[in-house]
Write a structure and sequence with these properties.
It is a single chain. The chain is of the alpha/beta class. The chain folds into 2 domains: 59 residues, DNA polymerase, domain 1, CATH 1.10.150; 281 residues, Aldolase class I (TIM Barrel). It is 36% helix and 20% strand. The strands form 3 sheets. Strands 3-4-5-6-9-10-11-12-13-14 form a 10-stranded mixed beta sheet, with helices on both faces. A two-stranded parallel ribbon has the order 1-2. The structure holds S-adenosyl-L-homocysteine (SAH) and iron/sulfur cluster (SF4). The site of S-adenosyl-L-homocysteine has 16 residues, from strand 10 and strand 12. The site of iron/sulfur cluster has 11 residues, from helix 4.
């Protein structure tokens, strides 16, 4: 009998891979189709749920394959807007977070791509704890299938903006995207998916060659190296100029609009001068600026900008031809921004209980 670790990660397999793997075990193709449907479309969490598969065959499956699932450790529902936040437990005891938001066009899920993150952005709760490990494609899929089942809903949009840096887990994220967009599986098309990166330029260049159909969001947060370098260590590897030139190329080649995320921090990156500098650097690019009032995180002193300054910032950008919107704050009462629940859980299990 194989140990769990030696068994194949069945929910991360494409239909073709599953069919091949089944053939090697002497199982027919139609069985692969059935099991793929259970795992990907129905989101089955165990072989026992697969009622059209005989008990004998389920035993064979159990001996050869493992289904990586996330399990609900905690669920918080916002009394304001119905936003649901999950703290999920992984099979090895790690924790990650996902958030389900309700918009007029349907449900959007924000999923994690790593347990933790090694990018160390100063304003980010996830970054403060470092990276535990990459998530498998199955663990990314399971966040969606578990949330759909738990709420009895169908999710129509995905944002890769939870914990972790998706491009730092490149191959697993690309495999996840292929699986989740398969019409025989979860079936969420690439045009309904956004991937957010802090700016790994080598990986953005790799993406350009792939001409993806998803939306690329880039966490810019500052218009120059002095400010950005202070907030985001990645800027010391790839500075604003190199990042923006990769973004320009991306927009030109893919003809898809880049979304720049910009978290507004009082008296730091929210000045009129920053807005003018930002507009100057984005001029002529197919892009949009998404302004996010910064979420205050324990461990830094960043504060939100005033409403008046947020409006002024937008007005400066728009007067220079750059479209900008302020992200609606959802789930304000449940700490919906990622990284905070996991951090609390970690502190508890470290015996380091702290008050918020
Ligand atoms: N690692 C990726 C995706 C996950 S972070 C990235 O950095 O883009 C998702 C978004 O939340 C990023 O734009 C990130 O900069 C932003 N973010 C992180 N902490 C935040 C905070 N405290 N307040 C506001 N936005 C924050
Ligand atoms: Fe990582 Fe993104 Fe947080 Fe930066 S903002 S530490 S890249 S999760």
């Amino acid at each position: 009998m194989q140990t769990e670790q030696e068994k194949a990660d069945i929910k991360s397999m494409t239909k073709a891979e599953l069919t091949d793997s089944f053939a090697r075990l002497g199982l027919p193709k139609f069985r692969a189709n059935q099991v793929y449907d259970w795992l990907q479309a129905k989101g089955a969490a165990s072989f026992d749920e697969m009622t059209n598969i005989s008990k004998e065959m389920r035993t064979v499956l159990l001996q050869n394959y493992y289904i990586y699932n996330v399990t609900i450790e905690k669920k918080l529902v916002s009394a304001y807007d119905g936003t649901v936040k999950y703290l999920f437990r992984l099979d090895d005891g790690e924790y990650i977070e996902s958030v389900v938001m309700s918009y007029h066009h349907g449900y959007t899920i924000c999923i994690s791509t790593q347990a933790g993150c090694r990018m160390g952005c100063r304003f980010c709760a996830t970054g403060m704890g470092g990276l535990a490990r990459n998530l498998r494609p199955s663990e990314m899929l399971s966040q969606i299938t578990t949330a759909q089942r738990n709420n009895g809903i169908r999710i129509s949009n995905i944002v890769l903006m939870g914990m972790g840096e998706p491009l730092d887990n490149f191959d697993n994220v690309m495999r996840f995207l292929a699986l989740v967009s398969d019409t025989e599986g979860v079936g969420i098309g690439m045009r309904h998916i956004s991937l957010s990166t802090c700016g790994l330029v080598d990986k953005i260049e790799k993406l350009i060659e792939m001409k993806p159909q998803f939306t690329l969001s880039v966490s810019l947060h500052a218009p120059n190296d002095a400010l950005r370098g202070e907030m985001m260590p990645i800027n010391n590897k790839w500075n604003v100029e190199r990042l923006l030139s990769a973004c320009r190329k991306y927009a030109e080649v893919t003809r898809r609009r880049i979304s720049f995320e910009y978290s507004l921090i009082r008296d730091k990156n929210d000045t009129d001068e920053c807005a003018r500098e930002l507009a100057g650097k984005l001029k002529g690019m197919l892009c949009h600026v998404n302004l996010i009032p910064v979420n205050t995180v324990k461990g830094n002193s960043y504060e939100r900008s005033s409403q008046a300054q947020i409006q002024k910032f937008i007005q400066i950008l728009e007067s220079r031809g750059i479209t900008a919107t302020v992200r609606r704050t959802l789930g304000a009462d449940i700490n919906a921004s990622c990284g905070q629940l996991r951090r609390k859980k970690k502190e508890e299990s470290d015996g380091n209980l702290q008050q918020d």
